[in-house]
Amino acid sequence: MSYSEDVLKMVTEKNADQPEFIQAVTEVLRSLSHVVDNDPKYQNASILERIVEPERVIIFRVPWVDDNGKVQVNRGFRVQFNSAIGPYKGGLRFQENVNLSIIKFLGFEQIFKNSLTGLPMGGGKGGSDFDAKGKSDREIMAFCQSFMTELYRHIGADTDVPAGDQGVGGREIGFMFGQYKRIRDVYEGVLTGKGLTYGGSLARTEATGYGLLYLTEALVKSKGDTMEGKTCIVSGSGNVAIYAIEKAYQMGARPVTCSDKNGWVYDPDGIDLAALKEIKEVKRARLSTYTDYRPNAEYHDVNFKERTGKGVWTIKGDIGLPCATQNEVLLEDVRQFVAGGGKYYAEGANMPTSPDAIEYLQANGVFYVPGKAANAGGVATSGLEMSQNSMRYGWSFEEVDAKLKDIMVNIFKNIDETARKYGAENDYVTGANIAGFVKVADAMIAQGVV
């Protein structure tokens, strides 16, 4: 058994109750066999055994009082995975399905994603099984303040800098930042995704979606092709999907689908961006209301948990952009995407595609880029926000956007060149994993056994 296979077996046995974490580690370690199995320096330093084990896992209770005066209790998490190249950096996710496996998979992915940006950021992730749906602003504030009352002990501008993720937007970041400042009596860039009035960065809201399209454009151009006139199949309707759709239009492409937890929309004339923003960002309503704005569009109810009914992937398109959540795209979905002429596929969400679906995409000539590379624009711009906070200075939208584009184009060049170097041309999974790993691993070796 090879070194990487031996470590994967160990991880699987030790974390048998954590399927998402095992899935993420499996994908990475199988790619890294190109590097670690024949290089004694990584084996002698037990780099794989160390990189799959978080430096610190924090689990805590979060008690808060609802509007009826009843005490509610949630569970909070922060996994500080690796700080070899910088302070821990990664979002906070508030969703009812959050558990240790999901937070560990996200934190593990974050190590390599942050490394690929070229910025000095380690990998971490956190969150809670709190669900904001149906909660008042006061209840959300009460939860966020209680969450930060414990989390503040473990974070800091040069230690661990959380950001937003699913369920955590500007409102939640504001409540948490206020509580941190109140407790610590320190005004520092301890969170990113902040409002513009208190240290936030322009272009942060757009960053993940815009970055996804900057990398996709680089991919398409590398094949002698153009974004102009391409049909994009987008899943999701949150922050990433909305701004991926916006940037796709700016590049001359035509996004025709989006989705939420209850169903999806197909608009053959192209998604009405203004309607989508009003539904999701203003009214916080369901996509089922989209046809009120565009009567010629189709809305389809789907039970995504039970996988009943067809999804967005039945629509013919050139570019697939999954922007919803982990394991949302299964084998049958990508079969339909390929049958419909799909050629490019870049992940806006974290690990949205099942392993057998990824294999099918690659086996059928689709150029596939994993989320750790394709959706790195969000954390890259968070890193730029950290820089601005440290300098007590703010860049213009155009300056941040230009830096974001440079980072995303460089990420594609890096993973493309790395894949070629290791004899895996067009295998951007291998390229991303190796390129992200080598920088972190070499830093770990340089810092000794810690």
What would your notes on this structure say?
With 450 residues, the protein is an alpha/beta fold. The chain has 2 domains: 187 residues, Rossmann fold, CATH 3.40.50.10860; 163 residues, NAD(P)-binding Rossmann-like Domain (Rossmann fold, 3-Layer(aba) Sandwich). The protein is built from 17 helices and 13 strands. The strands form 3 sheets. Strands 1-2-4-3-5 form a 5-stranded mixed sheet. A hairpin with a 5-residue loop joins strand 1 and strand 2.
Q: What's the rounded overall pLDDT mean?
A: 96
How helical, in percent, are the residues? 40-55%
Q: Determine the strand fraction and express it as a percent band.
A: 15-25%
Low-confidence stretches: none
Q: What integer value in Å does the Rg equal?
A: 21 Å
Please give the count of helices: 17
Number of strands: 13
For the record, the CATH architecture of the largest domain stands as: 3-Layer(aba) Sandwich
Order of helices and strands: HHHHEEEHEHEHHEHEEEHHEEHEHEHHHH
Number of domains: 2
Structural class comes to alpha/beta
Largest sheet: 5 strands, mixed
* Lateral arrangement of strands in the main beta sheet: 1-2-4-3-5
Q: Please report the first level of CATH classification, the CATH class of the largest domain.
A: Alpha Beta
